[in-house]
């Protein structure tokens, strides 16, 4: 099989590419240049897709013995991921840029280019597994063996068609230590390279600062649930539901309890804060449903709303119809900090059933 291996410059993608080549596939490595700054340098272990990362990927490909290219996808990344991130925060929502990157870049733009060039599949270093266990033998997406590294949540929006053309050679690896050990055995220079973390296009980790620089200031009020003004802010885009620190409150609560962001309203430029119990909900509503398997009302599932959050027992209340675009899910136990824009992923055991985008909580 002709396989295009996405090589970020890290240890995971290098080992994945090596495993694909060892399995007998005709592998070509490609590094996706996503930064609009051609001189972007790596800072500590933050970020990815820098000049150093491209060189690390090139050296790994040479060691594996596969052709290697660098593709400039920075325009796609900026338009489809960065601009979406800014628009969502400006609308008072809380997006996950890694979900959007996987959906729109790694398994849309990259797969489209791979198809045009005659490749059969795309290989990445994600921690997840694809199996032919769906209805009629269709591709199904599963959690990885290493639950701590599992990335099925951020991959769920890819859908079954993209999953059928994807290889995740690390899905059955015991843990990250085993991946690094294999990289050492293969004499890949990235075996000790630190993991990247945080949002790759905000390498200093200052999300609020990035949003303020990009969206500007739009001063407004911080109020309680009764509308009393407690403080002021420089822009609602600096807040997300569930946030506790940096609220700009000028006096503590009368009962001394901590307060949290419970609502963000860009139209009125108001940030509403309140007690922690106001964050809990058992009812979820979501749009933009992507399914690996047909859902029916009453189906028992597990629901996850954060990449590293726990899945909780739930039941599908209703599915989208011609007159109602919403997927509704009832949780058997309340979860906190549900924010519009987050991704909802439904599981049956370790198998992904569906993904959707959360709207505002209803209860």
TrEMBL record:
UniProt keyword annotation of DNA-binding present: no
Protein keywords: ATP-binding, Cytoplasm, Disulfide bond, Nucleotide-binding, RNA-binding, Transferase, tRNA processing, tRNA-binding
Tagged with keyword Transmembrane helix: no
tRNA-specific 2-thiouridylase MnmA-like central domain location: 209-274
Stored SUPFAM superfamilies: Adenine nucleotide alpha hydrolases-like
InterPro entries xrefs: MnmA-like, MnmA-like_C, MnmA-like_central, MnmA-like_central_sf, Rossmann-like_a/b/a_fold
Residues annotated to bind ATP: 6-13, 32, 125
Site (Interaction with tRNA): residue numbering on this chain: 126, 342
Places the protein is found: Cytoplasm
Active site, UniProt feature: 101, 200
Gene3D superfamilies according to UniProt: Adenine nucleotide alpha hydrolases-like domains, HUPs, Translation factors
Pfam families, alphabetized: tRNA_Me_trans, tRNA_Me_trans_C, tRNA_Me_trans_M
CDD domains from the UniProt entry: MnmA_TRMU-like (cd01998)
Enzyme Commission number(s) from the entry: 2.8.1.13
Similarity remark: Belongs to the MnmA/TRMU family.
Descriptive protein name: tRNA-specific 2-thiouridylase MnmA
Organism whose genome encodes this protein: Brachybacterium rhamnosum
